[in-house]
Each structure stands twice: as C-alpha cells, then as structure tokens.
Amino acid sequence: DGAPSIIGRYRGFISFLKKAVPGVLTVHCVIHRQYLVAKHLSGRLHKSINPVITSVNKIKAHSLNSRLFRQLCIDNDEEFDSLLLHTEVRWLS
C-alpha cells in the first residue's frame, strides 16, 4: 500500500530488510497485482474453481461439517486437517 512504515527510505521495513540482506529484490504491491489478475481470470477457470468454493463453504457453514472433515483428514493421515475460507481483498487505493 506504500505506507511509510513499510517502504520508508530510512526507517521502513524494506530499508531494514535491505540492510539485513543486501541483495534482496523487493516488489511493491505484489498482492494487489495478484488480486487484480485473479479477479479477471477466464470463465473456464472460474467454472473449475466454483465446485471447490462450494465444497469449502459447505464444510465451513456448520461446525459439525468442520469436525467431520477434520476427522476424515486425521483418519487419512493428511498433512492438514482444516480449511481456510477464501476472502475478497478490498483496497483503499
């Protein structure tokens, strides 16, 4: 977002990072750029992602579904046993 606390020339996080790791490459607003690209993806991709979103929403809608999903993952020795909700990023700029 360009806040001084992040990209400030003398006291921002980026200047601190450049002192700690001299050759580091920084990219401004990479998450915002990624969101803008993802927002305008083709219809075919949205068609394939919608069943995943529907499944996640159904699991997260009720605590019983979440517990059953967690138990299913544990029973199958999966690395992860919970789902994160997808979010829409809103920007002030």
TrEMBL record:
PANTHER family: EPM2A-INTERACTING PROTEIN 1, SCAN BOX DOMAIN-CONTAINING PROTEIN. This is SCAN domaincontaining protein 3like [Acyrthosiphon pisum]. It comes from Lepeophtheirus salmonis.
